Amino acid sequence: MGGVSTQTLPEVDTRPEGTDTTGDDTPKMFHYVRKDKIAESAVTGTMVVALCGEVFPVTRSPKPGSPVCPECKRIYEQLPGE
């Protein structure tokens, strides 16, 4: 079985009762998701599933130094290399 390719993506909370953003609509942390799902989600708005289980559409790209979801990072570090 081949390795899993991932990229860090933002967490987007679509629930109306709360948001996971700072006051300027910037995500607080970014998640790891499969690379092959990023473009599809960005173009069509389909949902992606992060390694930690969060589900959201791709709406932003992380900047260098952006905080990463600790659970996604833990899972990613346990994945076998390619």
TrEMBL record:
Q: Which Pfam families match?
A: DUF3039 (PF11238)
Q: Where is this region: Disordered?
A: 1-28
Highest taxon of source: Bacteria
Q: What is this protein called?
A: DUF3039 domain-containing protein
Species for this entry: Actinophytocola xanthii
